[in-house]
Write a structure and sequence with these properties.
There is one protein chain. By secondary structure, this protein is an all-beta fold. Helices cover about 0% and strands about 55% of the residues. It is built from no helices and eleven strands. The chain has strands at about 5, 10, 20-25, 30-40, 45-50, 55-60, 65-70, 80, 90-100, 105-110, 115-120. The strands form two sheets. Strands 2, 4, 5, 6, 9, 10 and 11 form a seven-stranded mixed β-sheet that branches. A four-stranded antiparallel β-sheet has the order 1-3-8-7, with no helix packed on it. A hairpin with a 4-residue loop joins strand 5 and strand 6 (about 55-60).
């Protein structure tokens, strides 16, 4: 079984920094991409940052220049370095892994349980 566990969330003041970690356990046969997503109360889940197995990254406009996504490998920690945090960054942050299924005809997504990030004075 594949499990993702986020950690590193907490309360931080505006302008502060946090680094989120996502640890993957289980066997991932073919990792296509991993990413960080967030959901604020009453709002839809949104993509924050993604990274492909080749290392290509993509960021939401709202976090570009402030957040950095990185990973060690498909099974070990993936990170989201968050700098210059703003109150609007407050949300539950989830890590996700997309696994390519045999023959790459489709894929399966795995999600962590989420970690709360609160940016407040």
């Amino acid at each position: 079984q594949v499990q993702l566990v986020e950690s590193g969330g907490g309360l931080v003041q505006p302008g502060g920094s946090l680094r989120l970690s996502c640890t993957v356990s289980g066997v991932v046969r073919s990792m296509d991409a991993m990413g960080w997503y967030r959901q604020a109360p009453g709002k839809e889940r949104e993509s924050v940052a993604t990274i492909t197995r080749s290392g290509a990254t993509n960021y939401a406009d709202s976090v570009a220049g402030r957040f950095t996504i990185s990973r060690d490998n498909a099974k070990n920690p993936m990170y989201l370095q968050m700098n210059s945090l703003k109150p609007e960054d407050t949300a539950v942050y989830y890590c996700s892994l997309r696994e390519l299924l045999p023959y790459a005809v489709t894929s399966r997504d795995y999600w962590g349980q989420g970690t709360q990030v609160t940016v407040s004075s």
